[in-house]
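Q: I have 174 residues here and want to know how they pack in 3D. Can you give me a structure?
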Amino acid sequence: MKIIGFVYHEGQAEMVLKGDSCLLNGRKPMFVPDWTKELCVTDCIILRVSRLGKEIDTKFADRYYDAVAPGADFFAMDILREAQAAGRPWTRALDFDYSLAIGEWIDKEERTKLNIENLLLSPEEAITAASKVMTIRQGDLIYIQRAQAPTPVKKEEVLRVEIDGEDKLYCKIK
């Protein structure tokens, strides 16, 4: 399984990869790593890829995912700034254990229940962009951040997305 992300960088979408150990689900808490002093979060939408594809045209991209979930993408802003200033890869700042909280899956036909406004790319644009670089396979995840400033995270804070009175994403920061 691949986890492909589109993150906000200097006004545009930048594609990144995360390992599967980054997933945080099942209402488990997010423990702030002791190696960062500035943990931030950006909310995102996560797509579940449902079939194999390469070089997918945008007009057919909606056939390649079957569900969406609310998400929270955590990253170490202090480490990210250092890496960017030195021209080094961003891996340590973005791809660490439990750095992507994933909520409950919602059938893509019901995705209107999720706020998909202000995403860096539409779900179809993200699938097209990812599939131009690599083959996407059933079970891969693609997450798309919103075009917004990151929010600093504080211990004991709770991140939640509620739809129709139910928590679809619940994550306590410890």
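Q: Anything worth noting?
A: The two ends are 28 Å apart (CA to CA). The helical segments are 77-86, 91-94, 123-133.
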